[in-house]
Amino acid sequence: MGTANNRIAHKHFRLNAAKIKLAKKLMQTETETETIERALDAVIAEHQRDRITREANERFVSTGIKIRDVYGKLAD
After folding, report:
1. Burial of 27 (0-12, 13-18, 19+ CB in 10 A)
2. Number of domains in the chain
3. How far is Cα 76 from Cα 71, in angstroms, rounded to an integer?
């Protein structure tokens, strides 16, 4: 996932090596850097999906539509 500003920044973090190793295995990545980059991309993508879903839900709810179940009762 690209961004408008693709500059590389050298950062130094103290991270749990076991978590990185497991994520690397699960993502089938070659390097720790690739693993962390892909994990960050996944978090960003999930946030965007959540935002789009929330906005769609708000638009749906704002229509005032009434939903009934298969037995004709009004859903809460």
Report:
1. middle
2. 1
3. 14
